[in-house]
Amino acid sequence: MSSVSHESAKAALEAAEARFIANNPLSKKQHELAVGALPGGNTRTLLHTSPFPLTMKQGKGAHVLDEDGHKYLDLVGELTAGLYGHSNPVIRETMLSTFDNVGLSLGSTTVQEHKHASLLCSRFKLKRVRMANTGTEANMHALAGARHYTSRRKVIVFSGGYHGAVFSFPNGKAAPNTVDKDDFVVVPRYNDIGLAVDTIRSTPDLAAVLVEPMQGAGGCIPGSKEFLHAIQDAAHEVGALFILDEVMTSRLAPHGLGFELGLKPDLVTMGKYLGGGLAFGAFGGREEVMAVYDPRVEGSLAHSGTFNNNTLVTSVGYEALKRVFTEEACVELNERGDGLRERLKQVTKGTKIMFSGRGSLIGVHFVDQAVEVFTCGEDIQGKERRDLRDLFWFEMLEAGYWTTRRGFVALILETEEKELEGFVEAVGKFAERHRDIMAL
Ligand code: PMP
């Protein structure tokens, strides 16, 4: 990589950022106000973008509209939770009818929570399930359950793994805010069978192995079938539980990605879109393991949460999964995602832009050298080009596409094919426009 093209990348990025500032005065103003109440103007770290984030005012169908009046095709899809888009009539109708006919906070068990739970069990092949408010909570309770069930403490996770706000393992280490940090053993490479199996066999006091079947926040890196089966088998060999984090991936196949790959996890954690757009988490699996949460049993674990069985989320999540994201809709959406990824690869051939992922979830990476094997974040360490990634983000905004700054696309059901074609075209034009800095 010549210093000349680094210089032109810098110039292009500075110009794009200057246009961003000029085009978004109301978002800028809102950010300046927000810092007065929220540290950094933010209550969800991921959404902070320098020099300031865009403030969205409205979502309609497959689009979002910012405070300055720009309309974007929503390719963020609320990091997979926004699967149903912004205007689904089933969701609207269920919200209103639940409010009118049921009410919000009954302080009791309801028939509805059983309906939602039964649907989750049958769809995702779980014997028992419990609900929570977020994917983070689902993982927290699943881990507590695994520790109680095995009477052990340690948990094996993988570099690049993300299991929630307080369970994050970038670059082979537990992030500083990780809860029970010393209980985690981080395998330094995802998808490395030998390393994973050795670590599982040599870790004493191992309660569980916790893994995503495709790393989401870690860059949309699918786990190979062989890898996932090997760690499932090794976990069982040493008497530990195999916990599959499907918070992002349950949408990738009709019964979840684990089932698609023939896995039989002891516990599965879920969340995101399964609340139909409302806060949700769930964990479930084998009957004997989930029995640690049976309140009829002396010495069982407590699983509390005021909103665990909230009438709105159990109604909306249920109707949306049953009537909107049917098994057929799931297959179709993921096929569309595969087609989109292929077309994106075609229009960026020979450039530093690389796409990863599976089905309706796409990772976008910018690398200095061609990457032949991409099985874990470590494979691209030192080759990533944040400047190009940022340039892409600014220029996609200008072209009318709302993507995450980190390079993640999650399709939503309402997006029309011709709009995705428009995105492919915009990406192709971007690669062409910056050929001097984008060519490999
Ligand atoms: N696990 C995975 C794999 C996730 O991607 C996420 C959220 N990005 C979580 C857990 C945590 O979910 P939540 O943000 O609802 O706490």
Automatic annotation (TrEMBL):
Pfam families: Aminotran_3. The keyword Transmembrane does not apply. It comes from the Eukaryota. Its cofactor is pyridoxal 5'-phosphate. Keywords: Pyridoxal phosphate. The keyword Magnesium does not apply. Belongs to the class-III pyridoxal-phosphate-dependent aminotransferase family. This is Glutamate-1-semialdehyde 2,1-aminomutase 2.
